[in-house]
Amino acid sequence: MITEPDPMQRGKKLVVQMVETFQAGVKPTFVETLDAVEVAKTSGMPLAPVMIYGDDVTHVLTEEGIAYLYRAESLEERRAMVAAVAGITDIGLGVDAKRVAALRQSGKVVYPEDLGIRRSDATRSLLAAGSVADLVEWSDGLYNPPAKFQSW
């Protein structure tokens, strides 16, 4: 992703993190500290075992909306953008409504209604892909999902 018109500007990988705001057992997805940090401490690892570091993520997509993180101008704004799509988790409840409105106005965060989608109409039928298999096919095999997402 290129964010500047400079012809020498290096691009950035598109890393979209798609999550539901709550996991099984009503465990919030958005937390202040990852479990991986404690795992690293207790097992003596020099780094936390994570697959994707937060500063690599360009977009966060939840059932609440999309945060275009690559547009953030500061770490504080990035945190506010994540909070704006974190729903009724502790993180999501900690963001100011005026801040969310400003982020939506600037296009850094969008909700379904900002895209002309009524939440009551937001069903799987609006998705381009009907299945994970569709994504694999469209990517010519570049996308290789974990086994738990493979039903074919």
UniProtKB/TrEMBL annotation:
A Pfam short name: Mal_decarbox_Al
Molecular-function GO terms, alphabetical: transferase activity
Superkingdom of origin: Bacteria
Name of the protein: Bifunctional putative acetyl-CoA:acetoacetyl-CoA transferase: alpha subunit/beta subunit
UniProt keywords, alphabetically: Transferase
Lineage: Bacteria, Pseudomonadati, Pseudomonadota, Gammaproteobacteria, Enterobacterales
